[in-house]
Specification:
The chain is an alpha+beta fold. The chain has two domains: 22-92, Winged helix-like DNA-binding domain superfamily/Winged helix DNA-binding domain (Arc Repressor Mutant, subunit A), CATH 1.10.10.10; 97-276, Beta-Lactamase, CATH 3.30.450. It is built from nine helices and eight strands. It has helices at 22-39, 47-54, 58-70, 87-96, 102-117, 160-167, 171-181, 193-206, 248-276; strands at 74-76, 83-85, 120-127, 130-137, 153-155, 209-212, 219-225, 235-242. The strands form two sheets. A six-stranded antiparallel sheet has the order 5-4-3-8-7-6, sandwiched between helices. A two-stranded antiparallel ribbon has the order 1-2. The longest helix is centred in the C-terminal third of the chain and has 29 residues, at 248-276.
Length: 280
Amino acid sequence: MDIRAGMDVPKVYAPRSGADAPGTQSLSRAAALLRVIATRNSVGLRLSELVTATGLERPTVRRLLQGLMREGFVRQAATTRRYFLGRALFELGLAASPEFDVRGICAPSLERIAARTGDTTFLTMRSAFDSVCIDRYEGSYPIRTLTVEIGARRALGSTAGGLALLAKLSDAEIETIITANAQRLSRYGALDAAKLRMMVRRARKLGYALNRNDIIDGVTGVGVALEGRPDLPDLALGVAAISSRLDEKRQKDAVEVMRAEAAVIAERLAHWSEMSHRPG
């Protein structure tokens, strides 16, 4: 049996604001479009949905999409007219993956967490105001909480791992992110800005992120953020299960397992960073 969340359709995903030069502004807007498409790449998005999501004018969105399609970063389905990420992004990803194989580095730890807890384990990476699920391992327990698909991009704080990453930021950063994502939060279930602020406060008090029926009724998740490094992405581990299974004792047990593996991952990442920066 699987418990799966509904699909994420962001209502507002504005490009970064600021007094940027025209070229930089266009780049920021194009990046915002790519991030929006990434949230629904399995089914694609219409032009009208991209206009709503970014808050940009329709001619601007169309012009940017045409440029992205010429470069192969976006494609449009001939039958549905929906937009998808293009092959060029996949090729760039392949080129980047040997440089930093975060999934490969973390996979043994995720496998051990899933084996020890028996529940679904997630690896989450921060991407600006979002979190991205970059890997997932299923435990042995027959009722699986597959609430987030690999590759899914969600508002930061709407998953246990994302909440762990959000809670470690400064108060000002947290407020900026929650405010920017406020209109998107209801897409994940019973979540809004006020509840997310409460969850951040609770995470700081507990020392780990906790989502207990706060987003999806009957689903509980706990998350632990890895120690950040300026030369590495912000990562977090998460475990999710049905709430009746993940009681307070098992929550703490899962957190201890994740903390132990977080230390292992941190050591492996530090070794990778040291080796990758050596000359020759």
